[in-house]
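User: Please fill in residues for this 319-position structure.
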């Protein structure tokens, strides 16, 4: 299958958490074949994070929001002209399968058998050697730059700092204002600096409610104030992260930052990855991982703030 090939196209368009986890695979490919040229095709919102990785040689950024299908077809033409030798499809969705089929690349790896004839191989060992395990890797994300001056307070190491991504892609995955307020009050009582993280008006409103209830000078609200690249840089400077199942939680895991992750309607099927998170809280609902985002049953609110605080205390004491 031509292991002398040098030009690799790596497909992972979205979402944030999946891009971060896929970064491990890209790293392992480059470790096994440092002479290969790896180009990552992703949505433009993730391009700054991807190009900062030492194992990524170049990026093709797809402006999916504004360019849509026209941009998609344009990129297919660009890829065909570039004459890549190997395609690594980390999606195996309808969109990525069509892209793979139209790419003109002879060797096409798919992580799932989505459609017949679209991919030519499903054996990843051909690209990265022996069986690889993300759970055994302490760090697989690189943060390359210094934070802006307005975040210089992070250089003060006299206090332990927690990053708290307060949102999630679905309301059912969120911990909720009540639990976050309880948890932040515990943190303030224990002298921990807290940084609220997130984006969008809904999460900004949640942050305002937490601020108005906790009223502590140790609480810093940065919701809506960071680019994705700055988010990576900031998390890299913290002592621990507490989060629902969000992209920010996966950033922390990839950076090797101690992470407390709370799961309700979703869980991650990759067992070694779940085990590597170490500090996991799951809803007491017997339907954990149901993916029913409109379910009326109690979910994330069954995770007690006091229990999460006890876990954080243990993490902090060990650093």
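Assistant: Residues filled in for all 319 positions:
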């Amino acid at each position: 299958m031509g292991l002398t090939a040098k030009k690799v196209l790596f497909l992972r368009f979205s979402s944030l958490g999946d891009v971060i986890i896929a970064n491990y695979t890209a790293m392992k490919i480059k470790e096994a074949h440092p002479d290969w040229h790896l180009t990552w095709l992703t949505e433009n919102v993730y391009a700054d994070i991807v190009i900062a990785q030492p194992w990524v040689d170049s990026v093709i950024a797809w402006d999916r929001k504004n360019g849509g299908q026209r941009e998609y077809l344009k990129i297919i033409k660009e890829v065909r002209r570039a004459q890549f030798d190997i395609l690594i499809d980390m999606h195996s969705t309808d969109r990525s399968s069509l892209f793979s089929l139209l790419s003109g690349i002879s060797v096409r790896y798919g992580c799932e058998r989505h459609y017949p004839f679209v991919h030519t191989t499903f054996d990843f060992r051909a690209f990265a050697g022996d069986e690889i395990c993300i759970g055994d890797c302490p760090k697989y994300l690189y943060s390359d730059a210094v934070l802006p001056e307005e975040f210089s307070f992070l250089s003060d190491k006299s206090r332990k700092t927690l990053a708290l991504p307060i949102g999630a892609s679905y309301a059912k995955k969120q911990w909720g204002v009540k639990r976050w307020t309880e948890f932040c009050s515990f943190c303030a009582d224990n002298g921990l600096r807290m940084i609220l993280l997130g984006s969008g008006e809904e999460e900004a409103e949640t942050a305002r409610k937490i601020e108005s209830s906790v009223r502590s000078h140790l609480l810093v609200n940065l919701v809506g104030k960071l680019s994705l690249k700055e988010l990576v840089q900031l998390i890299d400077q913290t002592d621990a992260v507490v989060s629902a199942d969000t992209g920010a939680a996966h950033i922390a895991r990839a950076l090797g930052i101690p992470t407390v992750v709370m799961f309700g309607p979703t869980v991650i099927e990759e067992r070694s990855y779940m085990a590597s998170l170490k500090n996991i809280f799951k809803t007491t609902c017997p339907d954990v991982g149901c993916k029913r985002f409109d379910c009326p049953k109690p979910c994330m609110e069954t995770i007690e703030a006091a229990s999460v605080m006890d876990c954080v205390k243990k993490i902090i004491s060990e650093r």
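For context: The chain has a mean pLDDT of 93.
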